[in-house]
Task: inverse folding
């Protein structure tokens, strides 16, 4: 019988009980480090499994709210375990790995979040990594509709950066005719499957698109390659490069990491600019920055789409796009894995249309085909 940890204060009766997070990793050291990080948030308690077989045995006795899963393990790899888990008992899974291609596969299979393993010897970066890990687990809990009590944020909530630190606000100023429309997309938790479904709905001559998907550095390249090789998707997909032109029939994924992605006017069209800067709305790259740039550079020639994801990144930028005459769309609640970013955009009046995932592409194509109904042409 397990003894209660008396160092942890009891949860008041008025609060929801702590959510169990199962950590599955073959390294005892990593398991203990993750346990300490996760239990620094009193809303969670941690159980530990050394491999998927031990996890299965534990699952037969108690079902956790969230699983944190490594990919490379002996006896059974993490992807095999995830595949079986999603068939037999779907639940929120956060993948903790440094293998980019397998991470994208896991997200396709239903994992909620992916976070790259840190360099445990680099103490200077561990606090930021730990905060990101905890946020990923909170996102997974919310995605699983778990009763996660909302603790009052510590510190000054207004201290986080706005888009102003990267791109100061300016109203859209028309600068002559732009020949083609442009589409910008922002997505987070649950976004891998959502982006796949969205792009599959477009023909090969769809408008040029730029996408911010919240994903760790080095993973967005593998994600772009996976989309580019998806037989359902007729568009060319690539990770964006600095100053790369935005052109018809191509989708550019803004790289995860140290830079924000923006679109800028370039002749009669646009190009992508990657600019270093602090996180905006807690993210880098930030949807907020991308949307603000589209409002300024394209105005009525732009369509903005905000999709599944936790938080409010992009809600303010989408409102700026609507005020600049852009087409603005939010994914509806029924088809979102996490109805956070779209909900906030809708609350602020930023979305002209709120539609299910499978109607977003057709809404944009109708806008492109009928410029007289809009103002982009």
Result:
């Amino acid at each position: 019988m397990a003894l209660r940890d008396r160092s942890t204060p009891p949860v008041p009766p008025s609060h929801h009980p702590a959510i169990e997070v199962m950590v599955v990793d073959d390294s005892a050291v990593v398991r203990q480090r993750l346990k300490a990080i996760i239990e620094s948030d009193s809303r969670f308690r941690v159980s530990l499994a050394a491999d998927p077989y031990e996890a299965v045995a534990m699952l037969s006795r108690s079902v956790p709210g969230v699983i944190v899963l490594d990919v490379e393990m002996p006896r059974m790899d993490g992807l095999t375990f995830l595949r079986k888990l999603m068939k037999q008992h779907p639940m929120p899974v956060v993948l903790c790995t440094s293998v980019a291609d397998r991470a994208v596969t896991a997200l396709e299979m239903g994992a909620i979040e992916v976070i790259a393993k840190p360099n445990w010897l680099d103490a200077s970066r561990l606090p930021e990594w730990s905060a990101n890990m905890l946020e990923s687990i909170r996102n997974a809990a919310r995605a699983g509709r778990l009763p996660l009590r909302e603790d009052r944020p510590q510190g000054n909530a207004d201290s986080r950066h706005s888009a102003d630190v990267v791109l100061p606000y300016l109203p859209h100023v028309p600068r002559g005719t732009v020949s083609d429309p442009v589409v910008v997309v922002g997505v987070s938790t649950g976004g891998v499957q959502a982006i796949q479904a969205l792009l599959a709905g477009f023909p090969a001559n769809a408008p040029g698109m730029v996408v911010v998907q919240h994903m760790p550095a080095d993973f967005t390249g593998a994600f772009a390659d996976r989309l580019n090789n998806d037989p359902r998707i007729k568009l060319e997909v690539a990770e964006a490069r600095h100053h790369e032109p935005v052109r018809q029939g191509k989708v550019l994924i803004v790289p995860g990491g140290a830079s924000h992605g923006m679109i800028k006017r370039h002749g009669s069209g646009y190009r992508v600019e990657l600019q270093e800067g602090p996180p905006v709305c807690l993210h880098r790259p930030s949807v907020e920055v991308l949307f603000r740039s589209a409002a300024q550079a394209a105005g009525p020639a732009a369509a903005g789409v905000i999709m599944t994801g936790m938080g409010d990144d992009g809600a303010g930028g989408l409102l700026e796009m609507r005020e600049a005459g852009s087409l603005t769309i939010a994914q509806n609640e029924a088809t979102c894995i996490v109805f956070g970013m779209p909900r906030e955009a809708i609350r602020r009046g930023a979305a002209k249309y709120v539609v299910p995932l499978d109607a977003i592409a057709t809404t944009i194509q109708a806008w492109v085909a009928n410029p007289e109904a809009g103002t982009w042409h």
